[in-house]
Structure formats: C-alpha cells, structure tokens
Design a protein that fits this description.
This protein is α+β, with helices and mostly antiparallel strands and 264 residues long. It contains 4 helices and 11 strands. The chain starts with a strand and ends in a 13-residue tail after the last strand. A hairpin with a 5-residue loop joins strand 4 and strand 5.
C-alpha cells in the first residue's frame, strides 16, 4: 500500500467552498500515479516503453464533502492484474483522523501508444503484485424510475483539455455529467450550487479529442433508499458512444426524498 498527503487546489472548490466531484476524481488519479511512481513506474518510463494505462471503468463514493485546506491522506494499492492487461487499483482519501472522505475502485487497461490492448511486460506485472486490504467499491442500490425526460447538453472539446495521451482525461466526464444536471436544475428553478455528490460510476468506450462536438444526454433513472436521485448520462462524440456515467446526487441540507427527483 502506498500512502501520501493530498492537497486539493483552490480551483477544485465550488461557491459552497466544497470540492467538486470531478476534482475528487482528479485527486484519485494523482494518488494512483504517485503509487505507480513509488513502484518504479513514473510517467516517463511508460512513454519510453511506448505503453500506458487508461481508465476503462471507475466507481467512486463520497462519504462526506471536504473544504479547502483540509489535511487529507491518499492511499492506494493494486488489487487485481489479469492477463497482463486488466488492472484494478483501489484508492482512498482519508481525513486527518483517518476517517473516510472518498473511496474509489479503478479498472485500467494496458495499451500501446496507439491505444490498442497490449500485454504488460514481466517487469511491469512484477511491480504491481495484488494486495488485499478492502473490498472493491460498489454503487448504492436504487429503485428504478421509468419514463423521465432526457436533458441534452452539448459542448465542443477544447485543445487545452487534452491530456498526455491526447484526449480528454477521464475526470472531465464527471464535470460534464454534473454540468448537465446543473442545467436541468436551472430549468426547474433550482440552484445548482446546492448539488451534493454521493456516488458515481463511469464506463468508457472511446476517447474524445479536441474540437469534437460532445453531447451529454441526462435522465433521472432512480432513487436510493434514503431518497437521493440517480441519473444516467450518455456521452457521445461525433455520433459515437464515448461513455456512460451514473451519478447519485442530493441537495445540501435535505432530509428525506431529494427535490432532484422532480427532474423527470
């Protein structure tokens, strides 16, 4: 297990002075990269060998929100490595008293420079022996809601969003999902500043490149046992499916069913 202090940048915080979900995902990515560096695999080594890991799927839970300047600790460990290509990493963010702030399970795939699947070298596989510390994260169960209307949000990918692999980094999709939900809230007279993250899952199909036109179709699909709203987000680029996300959201200060359930 690798452990390090975590510091979220000022830009990660909303008008409520709490970290946005997408920026918590960026913190998870930092922790994962630091863990790789500690195992002898900094980003430059991957580039030198013409390989990389990309996120195929991820689940995250937010146990509570965090404020700017709060001391945090990140922990990460490899929990599975199958066929030299399919790699699972657990990531946790803890508060000063070691209480959970956010937890994630990341599923990565090992690829060549052209993003085609590739079996990892023996040296790489040996650097990440699986460890068993905690169970993988699961999404909250929910009761299905049928027939809700879809909200569509469109944007064009910026060149300045491109990551070292030349496409949009995976946490940006969470930003898009929350922006789509926020715009739907505004249409219903709600203040999106009150949006509170509870959980997310994402499954990625293809990358998104600069200047591509992106569409996010968002629909309410369920409610959890404690009344939070569950949203389905389909992300497409140039008419192809790029990703599917599910987000669980409520509003700050709510008790009982969320007002977000009205977005149907």
């Amino acid at each position: 297990m690798f452990e390090a202090n975590v510091s979220l940048p000022r830009s990660a915080f909303s008008p409520r002075e709490t970290a946005r979900a997408g920026d918590v995902w960026r913190a998870f990515q930092d922790v994962a990269v630091w863990g790789s560096v500690a195992s002898g695999w900094p980003p430059q080594r991957y580039r030198d060998e013409g390989v990389s890991f990309i996120v195929r799927a991820m689940i995250a839970l937010h146990h509570r929100e965090t404020i700017y300047g709060e001391p945090l600790v990140g922990r990460t460990w490899p929990s599975r490595f199958r066929r030299g290509m399919f790699f699972r990493r657990e990531c946790r963010i803890l508060g000063a008293a070691a209480e959970p702030v956010a937890s994630a399970t990341q599923d990565w795939v090992h690829v060549r420079a052209d993003l085609s699947l590739a079996r990892a070298s023996e040296a790489l596989v040996e650097s990440f022996p699986p460890e068993d510390h905690e169970s993988p994260i699961e999404m909250p169960e929910h009761e299905a809601i049928e027939g809700a209307r879809a909200f569509r949000f469109e944007l064009t990918c910026w060149h300045t969003w491109a990551d070292p692999l030349g496409h949009v980094n995976h946490p940006a999709y969470v930003d898009w999902a929350d922006e789509a939900t926020s715009r739907a809230m505004v249409q219903h007279g709600m203040d999106p500043v009150g949006l509170r993250p509870i959980a997310e899952s994402a499954h990625y199909a293809t990358g998104v490149s600069p200047e591509e036109r992106i569409a996010v179709s968002t629909r309410l699909i369920g409610r959890t046992a404690d009344g939070a709203a569950v949203f389905d987000h389909r992300v497409s680029a140039a008419e192809r499916s790029a990703a599917r996300l599910v987000t669980v959201r409520a509003l700050v200060g709510e008790e009982g069913p969320s007002a977000l359930l009205e977005l149907c």
